[in-house]
């Protein structure tokens, strides 16, 4: 086969071979986020980050979209909180979760999701370690963490840690250099190779451990025009091959770049061949955006290339007739960025649902609201609509057939229930009564409340025939009716308020024959009944017995024998029928367990024992054995989501579910695929900034956050499924608490959180009914000082200390009062003692006074006797001798003898003069008045020392010449008496006299080394008047307002201290 024949064959195969993608219906695209702020035009790049958030790079700036709101990042001069340019080219997320933003004129910016700030990398002509150009394109991260950045001129390797850039350029003289300077995008493959797509130079590959680049010239390998060397996109295959999007279509480069081949596209037009982006989708399909043909899908297994949507661009469900710039596939969602019409979203269908579309003319349905379906093994199904009667399905199950001769009244009735009787007849319940049809659908008769057959008035809502051929008819509001085989009249069975074994209510909503004379009856407002038909009696099972809701909407018996009861608001119930014919509730499933809705419409069992449950929100598939749940809604490809009660049935070909818009058909045995829950993320934290504004912090990358106590914090969050369906949210502040319901609100405001750490978690339910939990956020509430543990402990300690102090103070006060009382008592006793002592002292004083008076008189007499003796013994004798000498001189014969006698008399007169002088000095030395105190003391003490043979020292400080008058005499007499006492009584050998002045007092100390004495005994004798000298000294000191102390003990000498105040003396020296 020639090289040109192979592409033609692939084209033919792709046109006529049924692609699995097309077999399940076209992928429908719809605009995304226009009403939520994502109203943009040109979208060069899209990114779904690791959290699931969508980032959109546009000509108008960078947007972050969470399904609820599109937030535009600020654009300004390039500060840390803004982008320097709003004309963006590309987005890339590195291994650390940081987002790199390439701009057209301002280089590269790195966004940190934790701080919400940018770091900018610019081109500097003067610095070779900066980016090679200001216009940046694609990026990739190698195994070492370096970022490779393509630009309009050159390739750059950026070290994110240092910001240093190494540049690479095309060198015509170096075959190992970059093949072209225009580096459009970069890709790092699993083997560590770096692929560089250039515009005009094909591909350059940098391999680990090698210098320079290997080049791949696509035009040479494929014998194509040079345009094929304009490369825009890479997609690495599972086997190591590389798929390349070029200006001339899709190219595959085999592992090791040993083989290069071009994959033909449809149609082979020049514009349609421009591939702008590539991305791998589910089931190993390669998706690609084009300039003119929308999105194409390539299947490597069979080589087919088909459009994701076969309609022409611009048609409903298709992309606009504009260039498609890029695409991102996240799970089963396809995001497409366009040139001129913003962002589009498509959801890839999960199951291949058949659909009888009531809005399609080929379905032939007379009404679009399918309310009843009848099917069974070996018989064709019948479809009943509300307002269109009954119609049988054709053999191919793709349309209904028209029955000729059907009365118009039946064709316009609202069908609510159908059942096939043992005879083959078909009973049809409508809003106008009961129709009986032949097996082929020919009307036999119509029975209503006016027919006289005993049937009650109202809608016939439920039908069942038991194994005995009895037809049971439930009528809304009139109760249950029974028609026996061959009978004409209906028996009425109704609620009797006086009988507990009657039906619980008269509005019958469901019937299920259980055989063995048992009939299960559901009511709209009064719960469930298990009735025995032979002898009529019913066992009621209501909300009080565990039913989730009083309105029963579906009854079903599975092959395992379990009874399944659906309610309108209480979920699905699993019952077992005991051997005694009693109902036993085993379990209840609700939205909390994953059901789409607590309102159950229909129940059908699949081949694997799983249950298909229809509701007003879609289809749920439940595997009771494991609890696994898979939900199907419009976003997962379900063509109808609002299903009607009891409109569910199955045969060997399909499971049928009727709803508003037609019939959904599910092949039995369809594999059950559990859907991964959509991620739930906290988006933003908002709190007042204290200046009238708001502080907004991105939250997707945060694990901890601090706030002050009393602050308000709003947390926004989102289920990132980007679906139109309703979401449900719950939150809690610690892992042990119950979830608090928020409904559809996606913001929670926290107020007055207690101090400490709260672990905030958000639980969200996506449009598919799956619950997931966000990563937790530790909220640290910082308390004010008065709420801190330290403050409280300190306060408690302070309180304890204060209490203890108060108690101690109180006890001390009591003790102090006790001591005062005790002191008063002691003072009282002391006063009494002093009174007694005073009396004794007074007595002693009287005695002492008498003794003192006697002693004074004695002393005076002694002094007089001493003076008299001195005068008599000394002066008297001397005078007598002098008189005799003078008389003899007068009678002397010669002058010589007379002169000798005169000389002797003169000598005796001199002696008398000396004696008189001594007597006068002993009474008051004249030197005290002539030379002053210090000199008089020195002369006196020297005289005493000489006479007594005792060493006496005198020490004075400062000039004491200013001491005069009575003070001088007092000090002299004190020294005189103290020294005399020390000599006479203490037997001292050394006496020290010290006199000093301390600016307020004269201090006199007389210290000896004598025998000492007991001061108490001496004072006692002094008080009795026995120590006249001591009393005289005390009186002299007290006379000048001084004080006197004695420091002595037996054998330790004595020190006498007198302190005499001399305040404000005019001539006293001033001491500092």
Automatic annotation (TrEMBL):
Transmembrane segments: none annotated. PROSITE patterns: HIS_KIN. This is histidine kinase. It catalyses: ATP + protein L-histidine = ADP + protein N-phospho-L-histidine. SMART domains: HATPase_c. Keywords: ATP-binding, Coiled coil, Kinase, Nucleotide-binding, Phosphoprotein, Transferase, Two-component regulatory system. It comes from Microbulbifer yueqingensis. It is an enzyme of class 2 (transferase). Residues 866-1064 form the Histidine kinase domain. GO terms for cellular component: membrane. SUPFAM superfamilies: ATPase domain of HSP90 chaperone/DNA topoisomerase II/histidine kinase, Calcium-dependent phosphotriesterase. InterPro entries: HATPase_C_sf, HATPase_dom, His_kinase_dom, Ig-like_fold, Reg_prop, Sensor_HK_TwoCompSys, Sig_transdc_His_kin_sub3_dim/P, WD40/YVTN_repeat-like_dom_sf. One of its GO terms (molecular function) is protein dimerization activity. Its EC number is 2.7.13.3. Residues 814-869 form a coiled coil.
């Amino acid at each position: 086969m020639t090289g040109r024949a192979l592409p033609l064959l692939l084209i033919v195969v792709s046109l006529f071979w049924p692609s699995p993608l097309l077999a399940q219906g076209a992928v429908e695209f719809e605009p995304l986020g226009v009403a939520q702020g994502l109203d943009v035009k040109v979208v060069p790049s899209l990114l779904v980050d690791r959290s699931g958030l969508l980032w959109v790079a546009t000509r108008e700036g960078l947007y972050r979209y969470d399904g609820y709101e599109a937030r535009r990042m600020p654009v300004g001069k390039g500060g840390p909180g803004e982008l320097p340019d709003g004309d963006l080219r590309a987005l890339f997320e590195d291994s650390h979760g940081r987002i790199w933003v390439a701009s057209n004129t301002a280089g590269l910016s790195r966004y940190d999701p934790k701080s919400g700030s940018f770091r900018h990398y610019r081109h500097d002509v003067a610095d070779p370690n900066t980016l090679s150009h200001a216009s940046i394109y694609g990026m990739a991260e190698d195994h070492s963490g370096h970022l490779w950045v393509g630009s309009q001129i050159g390739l750059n390797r950026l070290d994110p840690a240092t910001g240093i850039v190494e540049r690479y350029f095309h060198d015509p003289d170096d075959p190992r250099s970059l093949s072209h300077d225009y580096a459009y995008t970069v890709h790092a493959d699993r083997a560590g190779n770096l692929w560089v797509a250039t515009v005009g130079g094909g591909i350059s590959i940098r391999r680990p451990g090698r210098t320079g680049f290997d080049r791949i010239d696509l035009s040479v390998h494929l014998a194509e025009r040079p345009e094929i060397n304009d490369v825009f996109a890479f997609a690495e295959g599972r086997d190591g091959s590389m798929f390349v999007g070029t200006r001339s279509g899709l190219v595959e480069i085999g592992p090791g770049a040993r083989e290069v081949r071009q994959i033909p596209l449809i149609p082979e037009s020049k514009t349609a061949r421009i591939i702008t982006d590539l991305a791998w989708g589910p089931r190993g399909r390669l998706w690609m955006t084009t300039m003119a043909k929308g999105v194409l899908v390539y299947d490597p297994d069979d080589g087919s290339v088909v459009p994701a949507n076969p309609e022409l661009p611009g048609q409903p469900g298709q992309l606009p007739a504009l260039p498609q710039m890029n695409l991102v596939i996240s799970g089963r969602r396809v995001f497409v960025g366009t040139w001129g019409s913003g962002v589009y979203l498509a959801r890839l269908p999960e199951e291949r649902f058949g659909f009888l579309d009531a809005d399609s003319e080929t379905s032939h349905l007379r009404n679009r609201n399918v309310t009843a379906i009848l099917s069974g093994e070996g018989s064709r199904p019948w479809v009943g609509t509300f307002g269109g009667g009954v119609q049988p399905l054709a053999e191919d199950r793709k349309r209904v057939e028209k029955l000729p001769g059907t009365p118009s009244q039946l064709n316009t009735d609202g069908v609510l229930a159908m059942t096939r009787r043992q005879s083959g007849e078909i009973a049809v319940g409508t809003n106008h009564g009961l129709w009986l049809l032949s097996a082929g659908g020919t009307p036999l008769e119509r029975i209503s409340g006016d027919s006289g057959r005993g049937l009650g008035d109202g809608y016939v809502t439920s039908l069942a025939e038991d194994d005995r051929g009895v037809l049971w008819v439930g009528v809304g509001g009139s109760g249950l009716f029974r028609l026996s085989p061959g009978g004409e009249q209906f028996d009425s069975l109704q609620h009797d308020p006086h009988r507990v074994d009657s039906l619980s209510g008269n509005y019958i909503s469901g019937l299920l024959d259980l055989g063995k004379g048992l009939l299960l009856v559901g009511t709209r407002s009064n719960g469930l009944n298990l009735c025995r038909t032979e002898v009529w009696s019913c066992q009621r099972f209501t909300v009080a017995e565990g039913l989730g809701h009083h309105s029963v909407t579906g009854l079903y018996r599975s092959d395992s024998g379990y009874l399944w009861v659906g309610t309108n608001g209480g979920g699905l119930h699993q019952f077992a029928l005991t051997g005694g014919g009693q109902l036993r509730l085993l379990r209840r499933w609700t939205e909390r367990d994953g059901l789409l809705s607590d309102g159950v419409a229909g129940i059908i069992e699949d081949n694997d024992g799983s249950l298909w449950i229809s509701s007003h929100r879609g289809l749920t598939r439940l595997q009771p054995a494991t609890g696994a749940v898979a939900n199907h809604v419009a976003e997962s490809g379900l063509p109808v989501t609002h299903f009607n009660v009891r409109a569910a049935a199955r045969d060997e070909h399909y499971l049928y579910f009727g709803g508003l818009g037609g019939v959904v058909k599910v092949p039995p045995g369809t594999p059950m695929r559990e859907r991964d829950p959509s991620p739930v993320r906290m988006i933003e934290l908002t709190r007042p900034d204290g200046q009238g504004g708001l502080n907004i912090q991105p939250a997707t990358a945060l694990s901890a956050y601090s706030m002050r106590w009393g602050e308000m914090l709003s947390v926004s969050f989102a289920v990132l499924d980007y679906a139109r369906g309703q979401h449900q949210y719950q939150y809690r502040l610690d892992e042990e608490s119950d979830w608090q319901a928020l409904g559809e609100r996606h913001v929670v405001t926290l107020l007055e959180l207690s101090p400490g750490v709260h672990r905030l978690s958000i639980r969200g339910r996506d449009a598919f009914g799956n619950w997931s939990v966000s990563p937790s956020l530790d909220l640290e509430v910082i308390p004010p000082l008065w709420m801190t543990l330290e403050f409280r402990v300190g306060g408690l300690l302070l309180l304890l200390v204060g209490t203890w102090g108060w108690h101690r103070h109180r006890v001390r006060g009591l003790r102090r009062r006790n001591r005062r009382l005790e002191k008063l008592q002691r003072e009282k006793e002391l006063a009494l003692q002093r009174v007694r002592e005073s009396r004794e002292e007074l007595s002693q004083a009287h005695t002492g006074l008498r003794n003192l008076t006697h002693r004074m008189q004695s002393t005076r007499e002694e002094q007089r006797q001493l003076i008299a003796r001195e005068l008599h013994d000394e002066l008297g004798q001397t005078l007598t001798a002098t008189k005799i000498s003078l008389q003899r001189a007068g009678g002397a014969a010669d002058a010589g003898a007379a002169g000798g006698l005169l000389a002797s008399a003169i000598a005796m007169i001199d002696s008398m003069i000396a004696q008189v002088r001594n007597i006068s000095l002993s009474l008051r030395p004249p030197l005290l008045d002539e030379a002053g105190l210090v000199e008089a003391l020195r002369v006196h003490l020297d005289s005493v020392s000489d006479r007594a043979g005792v060493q006496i020292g005198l020490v004075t400080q400062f000039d004491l010449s200013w001491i005069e008058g009575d003070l001088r005499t007092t000090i002299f007499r004190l020294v005189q008496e103290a020294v005399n006492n020390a000599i006479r009584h203490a037997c001292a050998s050394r006496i020290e006299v010290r006199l000093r002045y301390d600016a307020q007092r004269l201090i006199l100390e007389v210290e000896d080394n004598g025998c000492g004495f007991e001061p108490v005994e001496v004072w006692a004798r002094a008080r009795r008047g026995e120590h006249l000298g001591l009393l005289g000294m005390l009186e002299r000191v007290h006379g000048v307002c001084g004080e006197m102390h004695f420091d002595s003990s037996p054998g330790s000498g004595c020190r006498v201290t007198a302190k005499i105040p001399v305040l404000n003396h005019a001539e006293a020296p001033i001491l500092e």
